[in-house]
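Below is a concrete protein record.
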Amino acid sequence: MIKGGAVSSVAVIAIFLSNFPEGLSSSAGMKKAGRSAWYVFGVWGGIAVVSGLAALLGYGVFSNFSDEVIAATTAVAAGAILAMLADTMIPEAYAEAHDFAGLITVIGFLAAFVLSKLSEAS
């Protein structure tokens, strides 16, 4: 995007779909801990605002960096997402869905594959 590119619709859909179950899981955890609905919505609203500001700041800062720095930063961010999945989401999914956790994961990857192929065709 820094060099004038655009975000594909597949990327937007994938990000939305990947964050949806994560958000539901976190919200359920906060509700189990006795937090009010106002607290949960406040936390998620705050995260949305801070994320938007961080994206704006990152765009401004990274527009002056080389492709190598941007690639290294993207790799670190991808590693952080994988670490979060391995540490939090996968164990929780297995604890909740047990026998279906693997099948649900495969369906998610299949959906991403189909969406990417549909975007290439159009």
